[in-house]
TrEMBL record:
Domain of life according to the entry: Bacteria
Keyword Cell wall biogenesis/degradation applies: no
Keyword terms, alphabetized: Membrane, Transmembrane, Transmembrane helix
Name by which UniProt lists this protein: DUF4281 domain-containing protein
């Protein structure tokens, strides 16, 4: 696959992921359609990106592997596999962001508490998940006074 085709796929994947993140943020303020928006953000978009990921892996697989850092570096020396890795990030970060939003909605978190976790997940993936887990743990601890006294 030539470089301009990869650039086009990069842009398309980014636009699709941004559409999913936008749906996730809109869902916070639009409770009537929040479930549909979160389903689009957390299911439809990641699955669409997953199709792109599989196609990129299938058509660009080459030397390298996952057995050592050197093998991973060799694997990602191919631009098509770098794009596959990027699509992987886009799909999984959005899926995790949606999972966080669904859990926060079930726990009736206010938007001011959810938005920082989503922003961190959007920008730094696992850091957002960690922030969400810490805040959720503190919230659960705060709501269980009997458990604190024990």
């Amino acid at each position: 696959m030539d470089r301009s085709a990869l650039d086009t796929l990069f842009s398309a994947a980014g636009a699709l992921a941004m559409l999913g993140w936008a749906a996730l943020v809109v869902a916070i303020g639009w409770r009537r359609h929040a479930a549909v928006l979160r389903r689009f953000a957390g299911r439809v978009v990641p699955l669409g990106l997953g199709v792109g990921y599989v196609l990129l892996i299938a058509t660009n697989w080459g030397p390298g592997g996952y057995g050592s850092l050197a093998q991973v570096q060799e694997l990602f020396s191919a631009p098509g596999l770098v794009l596959a890795g990027w699509v992987h990030y886009l799909a999984f970060d959005l899926f995790v962001g949606t999972w966080i939003a669904e859990r926060a909605a079930a726990d009736e978190w206010p938007a001011w508490l959810l938005l920082p976790a989503l922003a961190l997940t959007f920008l730094f993936g696992p850091a957002g998940l960690l922030a969400y887990a810490l805040v959720r743990g503190l919230d659960a601890w705060r709501k269980r006074p009997a458990a604190r006294a024990a």
